[in-house]
Amino acid sequence: MWSLWPAPAPHHLAAVSGGPPHYDAGHYLRLAELAEDGALDYVTLGDSFARPGLDALAVLARVAPRTDRIGLVPTVTTTHTEPFHVSSAVATLDWVSRGRAGWQADVSTTEAEARLFGRRPAAPPAELWREAGEVADVSGRLWDSWEDDAEIRDTATGRFIDRDKLHYVDFTGSAFTVKGPAIVPRPPQGRPVTVLDATTAPAREAAARHADVVHIRATTPEQAAAVRDEVRAGAAAHGRDPEALRVLVALTVDLGDVETAPEPGLEAGPRLAGRGTYFRGGPVDLADLIARWHGSGAADGFHLTPITPERDLERIVNGTVALLQHRSLFRTFHPGGTLREHLGLPRPVGRYSTARTAAKGA
What we know:
Largest sheet: 8 strands, parallel, barrel
Order of helices and strands: EHEHEHEHHEEEEEHEHEEHEHHH
Strand order of the largest sheet: 1-2-3-4-9-10-11-13
Strand content: 15-25%
Number of helices: 11
Distance between the termini: 60 Å
Structural class: alpha/beta
Number of strands: 13
Shape: globular
Oligomer: single chain
């Protein structure tokens, strides 16, 4: 039966490793190790100024040395935070994970969150997402501000760095300015993977300009394909290669009752407030749904939110993923050592080193 499927394009799967707040790093480590066993591209860990909990980026920095292949993508809120510190922290995660870092940029919209910092009042979403895009932009520039071979470490001459290979950013945004260069050397991936949730129109515009991976909400393959086409068209309009953008459908998953049939398709599936489409069923049902959407070419993969992380992620990996692997619809091992390699994304060339080389040749 399954031999009738056409040879699939590379398919990508990621999972949320959060759930209710835990204050034990071992909880997050176990989930990351489980996702790694299933050859998933990456795990995400949510964060927000609106709820208590550990800092997602710091948690995944703790998880990084204990894992080998799984990509690690914390949510980083760009509102009320310093872009220079954001870029340094994400670059540090890429170093301690040996090139497996990403970050999911998010914004803070409420007045209560603004009062935590006392710097400015809450702003409209369009303004906040424009600022988030600027943070993504300046972060890329800061990561590029060290050329790959800027470090010399020559003990004989006492030279640590070639200062000609450090570059000022001199970035002016709508709410901040950054001079640079970075204080962290260029990350192993060149630029860690930028992830954005493109549910809203302002976020979708930022995603088209700056994201490597876009999470979308859709209830049918046709709707997913339409949103993906819109985001890719936006990327092309900004001079980017639309084929270098990975678009994953966000799906909240409840595999608690393997005897319960899933909602018919997803068209009639109940909504989980603010979190996209909700799927209830068994691991085989989920594999069938993923295979059906994958066969239609609707998206590049799925970003799954297990409603009960310890239970559902185990069933995703040992049930759904194992079945997809058996059907040759998902890989059995990670194709490389970095998150960019998992996603089939090239390592970007530093913009300043390219400009310097061009100037020398002029």
